[in-house]
Amino acid sequence: MNIYVTRRIPAEGLEMLKQAFGDIEVNPHDRVLTRVELLEAVKGRDGVLSLLTDNMDAEVMDAIGPQCKVISNYAVGYNNIDVEAASDRSIMVTNTPGVLTDATADCAIALLFATARRIAESDAYMRAEKFEGWAPMLLLGKEVTGATLGILGAGRIGENMAKKMASFDMKILYADLYENEMLNEMGAQKVDLETLCRESDYLSIHVNLCDETHHLIGEPELKLMKPTATILNTARGPVIDETALVAHLKENPDFYAGLDVFEDEPTMKPGLKDCHNAVIIPHLGSATIEARTKMSTMAAQNMIDALTNKTPQFLVNKDAFA
Ligand code: DGY
């Protein structure tokens, strides 16, 4: 089998692929391939292990060729893959759900506390040697305990964050197309998006990126939020209209944002980096050794299953292979 891995991932997954298929080719550069390099590198492969930074569209699939059986994405999100185009070409698309749930929820929680207690501003203050001693009004933050947490998208990661934050006596609201029985049993309340925006002290985004969720949070939704609220995004950047968010952050100095993802990743919209009230980190939701290692073995297993005539456990386009 002729396999290509678009960027080095933890060794455990690469080892599994080598054991199963002998030599495999991995992008030798530690960077995202350019479009031209990607189109060239994938030619003639039976399977491609891709990253969320690779735009796997119909052109790439045609470049791979009709022998291609699987695109195994090293991510739970697969908005970088044109799944319909893959199904049309009988290419299986797989992802890595579950193993990064704790890591991503923990990252959202880290951003929640970092914004609430102004950790980035405080760190910069210390490094600038501005600290002159304890002061009653220095860098006052917001309480987390007892505040209202709004979860936008109560799937695995949103649910995990809600369960953890309930131990801080937070009131939990969630907005989702579906009821989440586990959250309901915990006493969380399902509300519409408008109520979620109006009532949350901390609103954390956990929806997939698709046409319906693109700019789900824009100027109107931001305006509904409390001027002292915080918005957190560890899902996908384009769920928030980032230009509108920058304007909102500038107009509302007590409104905070904790962002792990950006609309035009890796670029930020103009002005964002100058907002004191934004904590910004470089898409690190799943970036723990444990989660990334499990993602590598899961992506490898998906690839192995697809290329040995088994149905991969985490097949996204099941319908096309029913
Ligand atoms: C995912 O798996 O979709 C995450 O964003 C990776 O960090």
Strand order of the largest sheet: 8-7-6-9-10-11-12
Q: What is the CA-based Rg, rounded? A: 21 Å
Strand content: 5-15%
Task: Determine the structural class based on helices, strands and strand pairing.
Answer: alpha/beta
Tell me the overall shape: globular
Number of domains: 2
What does this structure look like?
The chain has 322 residues and is α/β, with parallel strands linked by helices. It is built from twelve helices and twelve strands. The protein folds into two domains: 130 residues, Rossmann fold, CATH 3.40.50; 180 residues, Rossmann fold. 35% of the residues lie in helices and 13% in strands. A seven-stranded parallel beta sheet has the order 8-7-6-9-10-11-12, with helices on both faces. Helix 1 runs parallel beside helix 12 and helix 5 packs across helix 7. The radius of gyration is 21 Å and the shape is globular. The two termini are 24 Å apart. The mean pLDDT is 98. The chain binds (2R)-2,3-dihydroxypropanoic acid. The site of (2R)-2,3-dihydroxypropanoic acid has 7 residues, from loops.
What are the SSEs and their pairings?
Layout: E1 3-5, H1 11-21, E2 25-26, H2 35-41, E3 47-50, H3 58-64, E4 70-73, H4 83-88, E5 92-94, H5 101-116, H6 119-127, E6 148-152, H7 156-166, E7 171-175, H8 181-185, E8 189-190, H9 193-199, E9 202-205, H10 219-224, E10 230-233, H11 242-251, E11 256-259, E12 278-280, H12 289-307
Parallel strand pairs: 1-2, 1-3, 3-4, 4-5, 6-7, 6-9, 7-8, 9-10, 10-11, 11-12
This protein binds (2R)-2,3-dihydroxypropanoic acid.
